[in-house]
TrEMBL record:
Residues 284-361 form the ACT domain. Pfam families: ACT, CM_2, PDT. Gene3D superfamilies: 3.30.70.260, Chorismate mutase, Periplasmic binding protein-like II. GO terms for cellular component: cytoplasm. It is found in: Cytoplasm. Residues 7-34 form a coiled coil. The record marks T265 as: Essential for prephenate dehydratase activity. This is Bifunctional chorismate mutase/prephenate dehydratase. Pathway: Amino-acid biosynthesis; L-phenylalanine biosynthesis; phenylpyruvate from prephenate: step 1/1; Metabolic intermediate biosynthesis; prephenate biosynthesis; prephenate from chorismate: step 1/1. GO terms for biological process: chorismate metabolic process; L-phenylalanine biosynthetic process. The keyword Isomerase applies. SUPFAM superfamilies: ACT-like, Chorismate mutase II, Periplasmic binding protein-like II. GO terms for molecular function: chorismate mutase activity; prephenate dehydratase activity. It comes from Stutzerimonas kirkiae.
Length: 365
């Protein structure tokens, strides 16, 4: 068989597979519509059903990854199914998701990675505004950054948890790649200032010291805002990611300039619904201890005794008094798990205050 005949046969086979895929995706979408009908019919009149279930979404993606035999890798297959699930969910009820804006930020990229492209995303000017939108019920969920692998905790997010009653429903991790961007009118040999978010400037500090040591570094509210400013200036550049570059039509003059190649940011999904156990969960909590010798030891001892893995512990000034602090803790397990439940009961006996922020599936993507 000639090369042309082989290609023709393969293309015909691909066409047949595409037709079968389309029919299966359409059948899945019809099932999603039927799920919405059943959920709505089972509720009293006027009550709204819960269409999005974080534990169900996490299970489906993990199950698909377990079944995957290649040649596409697990993450690529999960992304494909994420978009199918996102489109099907939009047939039931489009999700409204708030994120730290403007458009083109890494927070928006995290929101789309977690929920898919079919959500109705709403940019907010500040992290606290994302919390307020969720608390008010104006959106179903919010996406906020909580820690970066290079620069540590995002304190504005931690402080917002102290001020608002809200539930953590999920997490998403995003690899952060920074690029040096310029606009059409930028004179690259005359750059006198570089805009970016303060954390991004810190994450690229060594690269900037080596390549632009004498250029002014200007911290702005977000990387997307930095990209927007550069669009109309001839003597400036911006540090931002792919989404901002595409949105504002900027050109990369240097790629992946972050000091650490494994630079990642963890984002939390905040909402108002409790998430049942999945078997692979995390729990986040806030603890305020009495100011006495050995307080931290008393706090950590129950985790050690029950073999519970602590993944993060941060301290922030308490709002209740000068030189008093609260602990933000992430641990493996769900607050309904017997061992975790036992730990929480023991801590509650010693703590001034204990608040479980939520138990949620460990990040799949």
């Amino acid at each position: 068989m000639s090369e042309a005949d082989q290609l023709k046969a393969l293309r015909l086979r691909i066409d047949n597979l595409d037709e079968r895929l389309l029919e299966l995706i359409s059948e899945r979408a019809r099932c999603a519509q039927e799920v919405a009908r059943v959920k709505t019919a089972a509720l009293p009149e006027g009550e709204q059903p819960v269409f999005y279930r974080p534990e169900r979404e996490a299970w489906v993606l993990k199950h698909i990854m377990e079944l995957n035999k290649g040649p596409l890798d697990n993450e690529e297959v999960a992304r494909l199914f994420r978009e199918i699930m996102s489109s099907c969910l939009a047939l039931e009820q489009p999700l409204r998701v708030a994120y730290l804006g403007p458009e083109g930020t890494f927070s928006q990229a995290a929101a789309l990675k977690h929920f898919g492209q079919s959500v109705l995303s709403k940019p907010m000017a500040a992290i606290d505004e994302v919390f307020r939108e969720v608390v008010a019920g104006a959106v179903n969920f919010g996406v906020v950054p909580v820690e970066n692998s290079t620069e540590g905790a995002v304190n504005h997010t931690l402080d917002s948890f102290l001020e608002h009653d809200i539930v953590i429903c999920g997490e998403v991790e995003l690899r952060i790649h920074h690029h040096l961007l310029v606009g059409e009118t930028t004179r690259t040999d005359r750059i006198t200032r570089i805009y970016s978010h303060a954390q991004s400037l810190a994450q690229c500090r060594k690269w900037l010291d080596a390549h632009y040591p004498n250029v002014e570094r200007v911290a702005v509210s977000s990387n997307a805002d930095a990209a927007r400013r550069v669009k109309s200036e001839w003597n400036s550049a911006a540090i931002a990611g792919d989404m901002a570059a595409q949105l504002y039509g900027l050109t990369r003059i240097a790629e992946k300039i972050e000091d650490r190649p494994d630079n990642s940011t963890r984002f939390l999904i905040i909402g108002n619904q409790e998430v049942p156990p999945t078997g692979d969960d995390k729990t986040s909590l806030i603890v305020s201890m009495r100011n006495k010798p050995g307080a931290l030891h008393e706090l950590l001892l129950p985790f050690h005794a029950n073999g519970i893995d602590l993944t993060r512990i941060e301290t922030r000034p308490s709002r209740s008094g000068k030189w008093t602090y609260v602990f933000f803790i992430d641990c493996m397990g769900h607050h309904q798990d017997p061992l975790v439940k036992d730990v929480l009961e023991k801590i509650n006996g010693e703590a001034v205050a204990l608040k479980v922020l939520g138990s949620y599936p460990k990040a799949v993507l």
